[in-house]
Design a protein that fits this description.
Helices cover 32% and strands 34% of the residues. The chain is of the alpha+beta class and 152 residues long. The chain has one domain: minor pseudopilin epsh domain (minor pseudopilin epsh fold, 3-Layer(bab) Sandwich).
């Protein structure tokens, strides 16, 4: 009587473990990176939408930043949204016409035409610094994983 036993060899098991390790090595850091950038991407989307709403509707839209109560408020004809700042993060905003703003409240009006001003938002969360830059001429929003300086 012939017995036919099918099993994995040690080499096959090691190859499967190696492949799973390599896949997890590349995917797990990407998951954490997406979590870190989620709020920055949301703010960038709101900024782009405000600028587009003001240009397409030919009406002003506004962004209010309240550092004391820790929130961003986005208001246009189409919608109104609020984004809350987390406790472990600090924000700075560079508005060329007004300079750097760290405390208090500021309201930024987006005119119904492309302007030459830009806005830069600096986020410091647990030692990680991000810059969110809005170009009002083109409407492009960029996110950098460092603090970009614009003035000497």
């Amino acid at each position: 009587m012939k017995v036919n036993i099918k099993a994995f060899t040690l080499i096959e098991l090691l190859v499967v473990i190696f492949i799973l390790t390599m896949v997890s090595f590349f995917t797990i850091p990407a998951l954490f990176r997406e979590t870190i950038l989620k709020d920055e991407i949301a703010l960038a989307s709101y900024l782009r939408a405000l600028r587009e709403d003001s240009v397409t509707s030919k009406k002003e839209t506004q962004l209010t930043i309240n550092f004391k109560d820790r929130y961003f408020s986005f208001k246009s004809d189409k919608s109104e949204k609020k984004l809350t700042m987390k406790e472990d993060e600090s924000w700075e905003v560079l508005v060329p016409a007004r300079g750097v703003i760290k405390d208090g409240q500021v309201t930024i009006i987006f005119p119904p035409f492309p302007s030459e001003d830009f806005l830069a938002f600096y986020l410091n969360r647990n030692g990680n610094v991000f810059t969110i830059l809005l170009n009002n001429i083109t409407g492009e929003v960029e996110i950098f994983k460092e603090k970009k300086e614009f003035y000497d």
